[in-house]
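Internal QA ticket QA-208
Title: Verify multi-chain structure generation after dependency bump
Assignee: T.L.

Test input:
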Amino acid sequence: MYINYKKKYNEKYLTILNLYSWVVLFLVFFQYGLVFSQENVPELDIDVTEGVVEPIPIAFPNFITTDFSSSIIANEISKVVKNDLLKTALFRIVPEGSYISDVTSIDSPVRFADWRAINSDLLVVGDVSVINETITIKFRLWDVVGQNEIFKGVQFRGPSNSIRRIAHKVSDLIYSGVTGEGKYFDTRIAFISERGPKNNRTKRLAIMDQDGANLTFLTDSESIVLAPRFSPDSRNILYTSYETGKPRVYLMNLINGNLRSFPELPGMTFAPRFSPDGMKIILSITENGNTDIYTLNLENNLKKRLTKNVAIDTAPSYSPDGKFIVFESDRGGNQQIYVMPSDGGKAKRISFGKGRYGTPVWSPRGDMIAFTKMYKGNFHIGVMRKDGSNERLLTKAFIDEGPTWAPNGRILMFFRETSGVNGAPSLHTIEVTGRNLRKIELSSFASDPSWSSLLK
Amino acid sequence: MNYQKIFMSVLILFTVTNCSETNGIFGKTGSGSDPFANISQTSLEYFSNEIGDTVLFKVNQSVIEPDYRETLNSQAKWIKENSITSVTIEGHADEQGTREYNLALGARRATAVRNYLVSKGVSESNLSVVTYGKERPLRICSEESCWSKNRRAIVIIDGSSS
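Actual output:
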C-alpha cells in the first residue's frame, strides 16, 4: 500500500525516526508500605480556567542517587521537569537553599512542618538509579498543606538516552495530579523550519519535542513544504510538498520513513488532516481554479467529494467523535467558518463576528474550535464553542496563524510572523484562557505547528 | 529549474518596476521604456518585459481588471505566433491571508489568466496552472505598496515546438 518511491529521506533520517520504536517506558504503579492519615485535609486544587493564578510553590530537592553517574542523570531529569513546570506559570520552585529537611529516602515519613515553614505547598521526592544503561526513577508527590500523597508512588524505567522522555512523563504526572487536567509534556511537534530572506525562503519539514529539544529534519530544503499534520497515533504525518512543482499532499511514516503520494487524487492538493480513527484523510483539491473538500479512505483508496460549489472550501478539521467537519469557505462572500456532517451535506455557518475567519481546528475535548481571525489589519488566534458562540480572541499581532491543540485541550500552539522586510515566523503557545503567551526558542524560523497526541 | 525561471522573472520585474513610470491603480509593469527597444520580438525578454508577464489583482479578488486585458491579448498573440507549447501560469497572494486560503486564491488567479488566454485562442492543453499562495512574495515590505505587487499571476514560457 505504501509507495516507497523515495528512499532519499529514509537512509538519512531513519536512525532518528527510530526513536519511536525503541523508547519503551515502563510505567509501574506501586504501593508503598506507608499509610498516612487523610483526615479532613484541604484539597489542593488549581483551576486553570481562572484568569490569573498565583503559582504554587513546590519544593524540589535533588533526587536521591547512590553513585556519581546516576546523580548526573538525576540532575538532567530534574532540570527538564522544573523547566516544564515553570513554563506552565502554575508552579514556582522553592529555592533549594532554604530547605530544612534532608531527603535521604523516598520512603521516609515526610516532615511536613519543615516544608510548610519554607512556604512550600508541594513536595516532589525521587530516587534515580542507572543500571546497565537503564534508568529507573521512583518518585512521589506530596501535598504539604493537606499532608497527603497526591498520587501513589510511581516508577518509570527507560534506556539511558530517554532522559527527556522520562522527565516529561514525570512532569505530566505532577501537572495532571495537581491540576486535574490531561497530560501534554510527553509529546512532539511537527512544524516547518524556515531559513533565508522572505522572498527566497527555504522550508523543511521538522519534528521536535514539545519543549523544542531533539529537533530532527524530515526533508531537505529543495522543495517548499507546508503544514504537517500528525496522525492520531502520532506515527505518521501528512504534509504538502512542491516536489513535483505543484502543491501535493504526502503521507510520511515516521517509523520507517516511507512516503506515500496520492496519484489517484487530481489537481493540486493541500490542507490535509487525518480522521480521528486514522482511516481517512480529508483535504482540499483544486481543479480548474476551484477548491473543494474531499476525503480519501486510506485502506480502499475510495475518494469522496464533500463540497461542490464555486467557492473556496478548505482547511477542514474533524470533530474528535468523527461526526462533523469544521472548515472555512468564502461561499457567503468572504472567508468564514462552517460545520457540516462528516459525510458532507448541509453546512452551517458558525462564525458571525466582524472580519474574516480561517484555519478552524476542533479541540480534542470536542467543546471548542480554535481559529485564525483577520480583522482591521491584525491577525488573532481565537476560540469559540462548536456552535460559534462565546468567541474569545486570545492573541493579536501582525500575523498570528494556524493554531494546533495540545492533547489536553488546554493549550494552543500557533505561529506568529513579524512584519516588514525582515519579517519571520516563530512558534508560540498560549493557554485557552488567554494566559501565559510563550515563544518557543529555536535556532531557525518556524511555522505551521502540529501537536502530537500523548506518546505511548 | 522552475525556481530559476521564477528568479529570473523576479529579477527582471524588479528592474522594470524600479526604472519605469508606474501607471494605473496597480502600477502596471512593462511600459515599453527605452532599455528594451532593441530586444528581439521573439525573445523571452520581449515577452516578460515588453508585453509584460504579470497581471495584478485587487485584495481577495481574482477578476482580470480591464487594465490587463491588453497585456493578456498581446500574450495570447505572442504565444500563438511563437508556437509556444508549454506555459506555466503561477498564481500568488499577499501575506495578508491564511496559508490554505491563499493557496486556493492563487489558484483562482492563475486560472482566471488561463481562462482568458484560452478565450483568446491559446490551446488549453499548452497551459499549466500552479498556485504558490503567499509562499513566494515578489516584494517583501509589509505595506500595500508591496502587497499590491504580490497579488499577481505570472505567465512563464516553458518551451516551444520550434
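Spot checks passed. Chain A has a mean pLDDT of 89.
Status: verified.
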